[in-house]
Amino acid sequence: MCGIVGYIGFREAYPIVIKGLKRLEYRGYDSAGVMLFDGNDLKVSKTKGKVSDLEEKSKEISQSGTIGMGHTRWATHGVPNDINSHPHLSNSENLAIIHNGIIENYEPLKKELIKRGYVFKSDTDTEVLVNLIEEVKKKENLKLGKAVQVALNQVIGAYAICVFDKQKPDEIVVARLGSPLAIGVGKDEFFIASDASPFIEYTSNAIYLEDEEMAIVRLHKPLKIRKIKDDTIVDPYIQELQMNLEQIEKGGYDHFMLKEIYEQPNVIKDTYRGRLLANEGIIKMAGIEDNLEKFLNADRILIVACGTSWHAGLVAEYIIEEFTRIPVEVEYASEFRYRNPIINKNDIVIAISQSGETADTLAAIKLAKENGAFVFGVCNVVGSSISRETHAGAYTHAGPEIGVASTKAFTTQITVLTMIALRLAKAKGTLSNSDFHRHLQELEIIPEKVQEALEMTNEVAKTIAAKFKDSQNCLYLGRGYNFPVALEGALKLKEISYIHAEGYPAAEMKHGPIALIDEQMPVVVIAPKQGHYDKVVSNIQEIKSRSGKIIAIVTKGDTQVRDLADYVIEIPDTSDALSPLLTTIPLQLLSYHIAVMRDCNVDQPRNLAKSVTVE
Ligand code: M6R
């Protein structure tokens, strides 16, 4: 994964790079490093740990220079330590590189370079790449840009790189394949980063490099973009950024995750704004309207995604099948890409991804396209790789999600997918007019209900968190639309509090997991009034008779479950199909409070990164 930042211009580079790295720390945070060039000398400081540790460490070097590059790492090759941190220098110490990605064939390349006398200090694939560039440059007497291009043509893998040559200190060479890279274009200055957040206060003009493109970012010269393979020149396409500074700051909240949980009423509204006109009975989404026939003629919809986005896909399976009667299958992108799946011309593949950069989902999309499927993306990050790789799509408009645990991405993905299901149902006539209008009306008022759910559940979630913060395990149960919510609740708890948690369909419990239940086992049961309420009540009885501790999510005013459960959390009433948008709120808050009480790093949990750009 990793985050990269570069600057070349007239300002001091160090503060720009450090601030940029802090904004990109969600991409990886096990080590960090910086390189600065002050006109004479190239200085590097790097360390295991976070960007704040780097700030301490880099007090040892002079921090001046108007050219700089920085890196925040999520280790792939080599443990997180000072030496394996980026930037890496070539043997001559003329070249410096930062890299996000994996060079898969680094071993044979390394062996070859060792034969030619190169010495390696780190265990990384990146140090191989910088020395390969050096070797090509020296052997063929090439300029840096050409040497990078020749070297990259020998490399198998994924990369977003910045390379600096102290012998040619007015340029940084950048390239991408499979990992994101944005270039901020200012007046007499350029910014380079994994996403645009490091430079939004300096410029709103950005160029997103496409796969297999490289650029020479040179002071006082127009940017030149080329294809790495055949050197063809590409016209730079400058996009106007939609992000603002406020969106990427905590805004008074202790953690990004909490801020993002509380943003849900507004962002759900942003998601359907201009698309859902409930009073007129209209849903219009450009990506669907333009491809309506394809959707209506689809034999099957295949959904590919990972993690929380996969859970949103499961909710969508229930909704789309129920509303449209189109068969839906949901696959982990990581399995799909490697299992020779049956993909037909009349299949539609929907790829769901918050970041739009998840390597497995991207690979699944490529496979689906190769097999002739029409691929529709549901992404949050505008201009991301998945949004560009898909034939059409719909953005979720959730705004930047920085906490590693996905929250608002999940609810906005469900909102988009529900609108798609409703639009298709209308066109197919698979929902009655009155049901269609009822769902539209209900979706329109869901943001107010999410707001109400936040107000109703936060304090009680905190109280329950205090009781269960030291648990070793936790079960989450739900049925129907709320089975995926049980999976999502369990994922939230395990990823940020490190408590083992499992989600199950409530009725499956008797086929095994019930053996786990004793008086130590908290069991979160999602039991809203709509849906399979009576069946869930029976499941609660089964847990109670085995002394499990029941935490039930119920509809406001429920009395039956209240009598059985140890703790209840009430949420507003809504339709069965939309209930995941409300039931998920107390589960997010419960995980959040437990993680805070356990002193865990909520926004940057161990071993994780926000955007998983490696397979
Ligand atoms: O950016 P994506 O939606 O493609 O990411 C997929 C997963 O990596 C992501 O949902 C992950 O599971 C989150 N940490 C869950 O909170």
Question: How would you describe what is shown here?
Answer:
One of its GO terms (biological process) is protein N-linked glycosylation. Its EC number is 2.6.1.16. InterPro entries: GATase_2_dom, GFAT, GFAT_N, GlmS/AgaS_SIS, GlmS/FrlB_SIS, Ntn_hydrolases_N, SIS_dom, SIS_dom_sf. This protein is α/β, with parallel strands linked by helices and 615 residues long. The protein folds into 3 domains: 3-241, Aminohydrolase, N-terminal nucleophile (Ntn) domain (Glutamine Phosphoribosylpyrophosphate, subunit 1, domain 1); 251-444, 3-Layer(aba) Sandwich (Rossmann fold); 452-602, Rossmann fold (3-Layer(aba) Sandwich). It is 37% helix and 23% strand. It contains 19 helices and 27 strands. The strands form 5 sheets. An 8-stranded antiparallel β-sheet has the order 3-2-4-1-10-9-11-15, with helices on one face. Strands 5-6-7-8-12-13-14 form a 7-stranded antiparallel β-sheet. α10 runs parallel beside α14 and α15 runs parallel beside α19. The radius of gyration is 25 Å and the shape is globular. The termini are close together. The model has no long low-confidence stretch (mean pLDDT 94).
Write the layout of secondary structure elements.
Elements: E1 3-8, H1 13-24, E2 31-37, E3 42-48, H2 51-57, E4 67-73, E5 88-89, E6 95-103, H3 106-115, H4 125-140, H5 144-152, E7 157-165, E8 171-177, E9 182-185, E10 190-193, E11 205-208, E12 213-218, E13 224-227, E14 233-234, E15 239-240, H6 256-262, H7 264-272, E16 276-277, E17 282-283, H8 286-289, H9 292-296, E18 300-305, H10 307-324, E19 328-332, H11 333-336, E20 347-353, H12 359-370, E21 374-379, H13 385-389, E22 392-395, H14 408-428, H15 433-468, E23 473-478, H16 483-497, E24 500-505, E25 522-527, H17 533-544, E26 549-555, H18 560-564, E27 567-571, H19 580-597
Parallel strand pairs: 18-19, 18-20, 20-21, 21-22, 23-24, 23-25, 25-26, 26-27
Antiparallel strand pairs: 1-4, 1-10, 2-3, 2-4, 5-6, 6-7, 7-8, 8-12, 9-10, 9-11, 11-15, 12-13, 13-14, 16-17
The chain binds 5-amino-5-deoxy-1-O-phosphono-D-mannitol.
